[in-house]
Amino acid sequence: MKPIFVQLQCAPGKTYEVADALYATELISELYSTSGDYDLLLKVYVENEEDIGKFINDNIAVIPGIVRSLTTLTFRAF
């Protein structure tokens, strides 16, 4: 499994609804509220063979209230 970090920008007033919906999926390892351009930062683990774009589109981007997302892939550097 590999960790993926996703930042989400939510529609005004929808951050808590989005966070609740994310928790309801039971796919999220960690979820944080953030400042700046994005409202939430989440960490999910996906199987090594899984298509990350499809996973995000099918499980996260479909949640109402999400305006924009930024996915960061991680690599084992050391």
From TrEMBL:
Q: Which residue intervals define the domain Transcription regulator AsnC/Lrp ligand binding in the entry?
A: 6-76
Domain of life assignment = Bacteria
InterPro entries attached here? Dimeric_a/b-barrel (IPR011008), Tscrpt_reg_AsnC/Lrp_C (IPR019887)
The name on file for this protein is AsnC family transcriptional regulator
Ranked from the top, the taxonomy reads: Bacteria, Pseudomonadati, Pseudomonadota, Alphaproteobacteria, Hyphomicrobiales
